[in-house]
Each structure stands twice: as C-alpha cells, then as structure tokens.
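Intended use. Records like the one below are meant for learning the mapping from a protein sequence to its folded structure. Do not use them to infer anything beyond what is encoded.
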Amino acid sequence: MSVIFNAHIKVDEDLNWFIELTDTVDDRVHNCMDMDEFSQKVEDFGGDYGGNIDEVVWSKDENVPPQAMDEIRELMAKQQEEIDALKAESDTDGR
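Structure written out for the chain above:
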C-alpha cells in the first residue's frame, strides 16, 4: 500500500491561502491555515503509517495568486533549512 498525501493550495474569499491536505488512504481531509499547521498535520497523518509517507502530491487552484505561491515557497524553504540544521546537529551529537 502506497501512502500518498495530496496537498492542494487554495484561497478563501479574502484571498488568504490555505492547504487542503488529503490522506488518500482513508480520505481524511484537513484545511491547514499555515505551514506550521501543515507540517504538524502531515506528521499526525503520517504517524498512522509509522511515519512512512511515499509521496506528497502538490497542486493548486487556478485562482491562487503568484504572491501566495512565493510566500508558500519561502516558508517551505525556511522549514527545510530548520530541518537540515536539526539533522546536522544530531549528526554531530551522535559522533
């Protein structure tokens, strides 16, 4: 069984972006209003599968403005930097 999550970027009526996260195995859906909530919910959903997530498939609605996409990319890059820093720290602590 492949564990695949769909992350679909949408905007509300006020043009605030959010990510609709769907677990395709059991069709759970959660609307994440920021990247912290998205990361936590991916971790929560993934915990049901021992943390083994095969893929996160990204998509977006056509009406999502470029500025929202830029903001999401920046937030994702920042989170990746934090993850990489924690990994590097744990690598040096474990030696």
